[in-house]
Amino acid sequence: MDNQRIAQVFQEIGDILEIQDANRFRVLAYHKAALVISELGEDLKDIYTRNPKDLENIPGIGKDLAAKIAELIEKGKCKYHEELMKKFDRGLLDILRVRGIGPKKVKLFYSELGIDSIEKLRAAAKKGRLRDLPKMGEKSESEILVALDEFEKHGERMMLSEALAHANEIVDYLRDGCREAEKATFAGSLRRMKETVGDIDILAASSKPKKVMDFFVKFPGVANVIAKGETKTSVILDAGVQVDLRVVEAKSFGAALHYFTGSKEHNVALRDYAKKHGMKVSEYGVFKGKKQVAGRTEEEVYKVLGLPYIVPELRENRGEIEAARKGKLPKVVEYKDLRGDLHVHSKWSDGSDEIEDIAKAYRDAGFEYMALTDHSPAVAVAHGLTPDRYKMQWDEIDEINADFAAATAGSSTAAARKGKAPFTILKGTECDILPDGSLDLPDKVLKKMDIVVASVHSRFRMSESEMTARVLKALKNPYVTQLGHPSGRLINQREPYAIDMGKIIKACADLGVALEINGQPARLDLFDYYVKIAASEGARFTLDSDGHAISQMQFLNYAVAVARRGWLTKADVLNAMPLLKLKEFLAKRRK
Ligand code: DGT
Ligand code: CA
Ligand code: CA
Ligand code: ZN
Predict the structure, then answer these.
(1) What does the pLDDT look like over 498-530, one tens digit per residue?
(2) Residue 263: cis peptide before it, omega within 30 degrees of 0
(3) Which residue, by CA, sits nearest to atom 19 of ligand 1?
C-alpha cells in the first residue's frame, strides 16, 4: 500500500464523515492527513519499518491516524474505512465526484430527496426538484445538469488525441507564462501514448512550487480545483478532464518523470530489478543506501541500473526489462521511417480533398508515395466507386503521376534529378468484405490495383465463428494487400466485433497479408497488444492514416504510436519500404 492509496482512504473517510454530518474537526483531521500524506517526501512504509513511532512525528498525524496507517501497511486495508464503506452507498461517493458538488450538497440531496446515485440526481434535476431546496435555485440546478453531462462523457477514458490536445495546451501555458516552472512536460499513460487516457499527468521542476501551482490553477480551461498543495495539484477542466500537476526539485526531475510516466507495472518491475542490484528507485531518485546516485534525468536512471534507455511506449511490463537486460530491446519504428501512407480517401468517395492536392501535400511533407483507397460500391453512404468510376480515377492518377515525373526530370539541380524518384500515387481501393466473405469488386478490377485494403463495414453482429470465416475467406483473395481496421472497434462508441483474432493473425502471417494499424483517433486498430503477438508470428503491418482530409495526414503519428507500443521495428512495416521494395513485396503474393 503506497502513500497515494493511503491518502485516498483518508480522503474517503473524511468525505463520508462529512456527508454524515460528523464533528467538523474529525472531518478536517482526515482531509488534512490525506493532503499531508499525498505530499510526503518519503514512503510511509519506510518510515513505519524504521520505527512505527515515527509516524506520529508527521504533522497532522496523531496516535489514532498512525495506528490506521500501520493497519493499512500491514493488512492492506483498514477496518474503520471498510465499515464506513459498507454502511455507505457507493453512489453517494460518485455524486461527490461531479463538478461543483461537495459533501454538503450530497447530504442535502440525500436527506431531502433520497438521492443516492448519479441516475437519481439526474432525474431529480431534470424534473426541476432541486431548485427549491435550501441555497439552491434554477441556476444551480441547470449547472448540475451540465456537470452531469461532463461527468457522463468523461466517466469513460478519453481518446489519446483529446488528451494530447489538452496536455499540449497546458504545457505551453506553463512554459510560456510561468518563469518558475522548468521543464514542464506530460507523463502518465499519455507519454506512453496509450490508446486511451484516464487522466492527464503533468510534471515540472521548480524551486518555487507554490508559484507554479498558483499559476497552474489560473489556466483558463480550469473549471474546478479538486486539491491544491505544493507538490501535487489536481484540477478538472471545463471538458471534464482531470489534470494532475506535480512539481519536484530539479535534482529529482528524471526520477519523477520516470515514476509518473509509469506504467505502474513497469515501475514495480524496475524497482524489483534495482533491489536485486543493491539499489532503490523512487520518484526522488536512484539510491545506494542513503546516497542518491541518479535522478536528474531519466536516461541516468536506466544507466546507473546498467540498462539501456527504454522508450515510454514500451513501459508496460511486457518483457521490456528482460529484453533491455539482454540487449534485445527492439529499435522501435519512428515517424520519420515512413515513406508513404497506404490508406487515403479523396473527394471521389467520402474524403474532402482533390487527389492532386492530397498528393502534393504528401510529397511536400517528404513522403515518396501514397495509395489512394476510395471506398467500394457497398458503402453507398460514402459514395463508394463503381468499377467504371475507378477506371476514370486511374486516368486522373496517371496524369498526376506523369506530371510529378516530368517535374522531377526537369528539376534544375542534377542532384535532385539523380537522387530522387518522383512522388507516386498508387492505385488502390478500400474494398468491403461482404457478409459472405466475398469482396465488393470483381477480381479483374482488383487485379489492376496496387493496394487493396479489405475492410468490414457492415453486419457487425455476426457470431464469432461466422465473422472469423467471413474475414478468413476475404484474406485468401490474392489481391488483398492489407486487412483494414481489423477489429472494427470505435473507442467509446462501438465494441470490436466478435472475431477470433488469433486465427486472423495467423492467416495474415501465413498468407502475407499485412495487418493495418489504422491511425484514426477513434480506431487505433489493431491494438498494441495484438500487434506484438502478430509481429512475433511474423505478420507484416501497414501504418495508415485512413485520412479523409489532408490535415488527417497527422493521424500517421497515432499509427506509429500503436506500432511502437506493439514493439514493431521499421522492418515490420510495409510503408517504411522504398517504393520499389514495396512493389516487389506485393508482387510476390500475386504469383
Ligand atoms: P491512466 O491515467 O489511467 O490512463 O493511467 P496512468 O498510467 O497515467 O496512471 P495514473 O494517472 O494513475 O498515474 C500516473 C503514473 O504514476 C503511473 O503510470 C505510474 C505512477 N503511479 C501511480 N500510482 C502508482 C503506484 O501505486 N505505484 C507505482 N509504482 N507507481 C504509481
Ligand atoms: Ca494518468
Ligand atoms: Ca493521475
Ligand atoms: Zn474503413
Answers:
(1) 999 999 999 999 999 999 999 999 999 999 999
(2) yes
(3) 262
Q: What is the mean pLDDT of residues 340-364?
A: 96
Query: Cα(403) to centroid of ligand 4, in Å?
Result: 30
Ligand 1 pocket, 145 CB below 6 A?
no
Please check the confidence at residue 154 and state whether its pLDDT lies above 80: no
Instruction: Place 380 in a pLDDT band, splitting at 50, 70 and 90.
Output: confident
Write the residue with the smallest CA distance to atom 5 of ligand 1. Answer: 189
Q: Are strands 182-186 and 196-197 parallel, antiparallel or unpaired?
A: unpaired
Confidence tier at 467 by pLDDT (50, 70, 90): very high
**286 C-alpha to ligand 4 centroid (Å):** 47
Half-sphere exposure of 6 (CA within 13 A, CB side): 26
Q: Which phi and psi (to 5°) does residue 410 adopt?
A: -85, 5
Which residue has a Cα nearest atom 28 of ligand 1? 264
Cα 43 from Cα 73, distance rounded (Å): 11
Ligand 1 within 6 A of 189 CB? yes
Of residues 418, 416, 497, the one with CA closest to residue 462 = 497
Q: CA neighbours within 13 Å on the CB side: how many for 389?
A: 14
- Inform me whether the pLDDT recorded for 417 exceeds 60: no
User: Are the CB atoms for 267 and 298 separated by under 8 Å?
Assistant: no
Q: Residue 370 and residue 455: Cα distance in Å, rounded?
A: 18
DSSP collapsed to 3 states, 204-245 = EECCCHHHHHHHHCCCCCEEEEEEECCCEEEEEECCCCEEEE
State mean pLDDT over 51-72: 93
Give distance in angstroms: CA of 121 to centre of ligand 3.
Answer: 27
User: What is the whole-number distance in angstroms between the Cα of residue 457 and the centre of ligand 4?
Assistant: 7
d(CA 584, CA 433): 25
Maximum CA pair distance of the chain? 85
207 in contact with ligand 1, CB cutoff 6 A:
no
Pocket perturbation via mutation, ligand 1, pick of 189, 234, 258 by most ligand atoms within 8 A of CB = 189
Mean pLDDT, rounded, of the chain: 93
Full set of structural domains in the chain with CATH: 3-154 (1.10.150.110), 158-248 (3.30.460.10), 259-329 (3.30.210.10), 335-590 (3.20.20.140)
Does the structure show a pLDDT above 70 at 155? Answer: no
CA dist., res. 193 & res. 240, Å (int): 20
β-pair type (340-344, 369-375): parallel
User: Cβ distance 485 to 555 under 8 Å?
Assistant: no
| Residue 563 near residue 314 (C-beta atoms within 8 A) | no
Which pLDDT belongs to residue 412? 64
Record the pTM.
Answer: 0.78
